[in-house]
Write a structure and sequence with these properties.
This protein is mostly helical and 130 residues long. Helix content is 84%, strand content 0%. It contains four helices and no strands. The radius of gyration is 17 Å and the shape is elongated.
């Protein structure tokens, strides 16, 4: 087990926790009581950041660990760190305006694709090596 990949995983979970707390804070700020998921556009952007990040975690975390195991844990951690930066940029931008989310989304999506495709190559190579 790689401590670098474990660190990226823990930081990813911490980021998700902060983003989730932000939803609760936005509910209070914009007076959107649970279970409502609509209201002020500012609240909806904060909620969308949380939902999209959760959707992306389903792809990112397994790809991160598979890449680490089949390719290289240090490179996996580096790409994972780039993913984290992308997610922070995504959240920061989206909190301000929906159209400001694209750079962060692109960075994190590309990072996930690198991890997934790299994992597939690593897995296939491990299957065909004698």
């Amino acid at each position: 087990m790689s401590p670098w990949i474990s660190l990226i995983t823990a930081l990813t979970l911490l980021l998700y926790l902060v983003i989730t707390i932000n939803v609760g804070r936005a509910r209070a700020k914009y007076k959107v009581a649970p279970p409502k998921t609509t209201g002020d556009a500012g609240f909806e952007r904060v909620l969308r950041v949380q939902q999209n990040t959760l959707e992306q975690l389903v792809l990112f975390l397994p790809a991160l660990w598979l890449f680490s195991f089949y390719v290289n844990p240090l490179w996996g951690a580096l790409v994972g760190a780039i993913w984290l930066v992308g997610r922070i940029a995504y959240a920061w931008g989206y909190y301000q305006a929906a159209e400001k989310r694209m750079l962060g989304f692109g960075i994190s999506s590309l990072s996930s694709m690198v991890l997934l495709l790299g994992s597939l190559v690593g897995i296939i190579l491990s299957l065909v090596r004698p």
